[in-house]
Design goal:
Length: 205
C-alpha cells in the first residue's frame, strides 16, 4: 500500500487546528507547521466564476510543471478531461468543510514513466466568507523527467459527514468573490514563497 507522508503530515496538522470539527481559519495556518511537507503544499483562493487560483505552490509543483504556478488555476495541474471534475471536488470540499482526497495518475509521455499520486484538498475559512481558501497537498511517485506533467483522476476517497451546524461558515461561498489584491512576494530564482505575518494576538498567512 502506498504511503504519502506529506499528505499525512498536513492532514494531521489541519485536523489539529479544527475547532470542534470546524475548518481552521487561514490565519491559523503557519509555514513552520507545514515545514516537513512544504515542497508539496499549495494554497488557493476560490472564486465562483474562476474556480481555484493558486497563491503559493511548493518546489515539487514547480518541478512537476516546470514553471511558477502563482496566479494560475489549480486545474492547470490536470489534463483537460479532469479539470471540471477536480474543480467540482474542490467546490464540494469548501461547501462541506470536509477534506477531499483523490488518487491521480500522469500518463507516460515519450521517454518518461507513469506518475502515480494523490491530492488532498483542505478547506480553510477566510475573513470574507464569500472568498474561501484551500490548502492543498500533492504527492506523486516516479521520475518527472520532462515537465509539465499533468494528472487524470483515478478515484475520490470521501471523508465521513459532519453535522450541518459545523458547516455554517460555508454558506454563500458560491457568491461572486471580490478581486484578490494581495501582493505576492517571491524569492530569487522565481521560487514561490508562503508569506507568514505574525501579530501578538492573531497569526496570519
Amino acid at each position: 500500500m502506498k504511503t504519502y507522508p506529506a499528505i499525512s503530515a498536513v492532514s494531521g496538522y489541519w485536523d489539529a487546528l479544527c475547532d470542534g470539527g470546524r475548518p481552521p481559519s487561514i490565519d491559523e495556518v503557519h509555514a513552520h507547521g507545514l515545514e516537513a511537507a512544504l515542497d508539496h503544499v499549495f494554497t488557493a483562493y476560490w472564486s465562483a466564476h474562476k474556480g481555484a487560483r493558486i497563491r503559493f505552490a511548493g518546489q515539487f509543483l514547480f518541478r512537476l510543471m516546470g514553471m511558477d504556478l502563482t496566479g494560475m488555476h489549480m486545474s492547470a495541474l490536470f489534463a483537460d478531461g479532469s479539470r471540471m471534475e477536480i474543480s467540482a471536488i474542490a467546490q464540494r470540499a469548501i461547501a462541506s468543510g470536509r477534506p477531499a482526497r483523490v488518487d491521480l495518475e500522469s500518463p507516460a509521455p515519450l521517454s518518461s514513466q507513469v506518475l502515480t499520486g494523490r491530492i488532498l484538498l483542505l478547506p480553510l475559512r477566510a475573513d470574507d466568507p464569500h472568498a474561501p481558501r484551500l490548502l492543498g497537498v500533492l504527492e506523486a511517485e516516479g521520475n518527472i523527467v520532462v515537465p509539465p506533467r499533468r494528472f487524470v483522476l483515478r478515484g475520490e476517497s470521501k471523508a465521513p459527514p459532519r453535522p450541518e451546524k459545523e458547516l455554517e461558515y460555508a454558506h454563500g461561498f458560491a457568491e461572486p468573490a471580490p478581486a484578490f489584491d494581495h501582493e505576492e512576494r517571491r524569492p530569487p530564482m522565481g521560487r514561490p514563497a508562503l508569506r507568514v505575518v505574525v501579530r501578538n494576538d492573531v497569526s496570519g498567512d
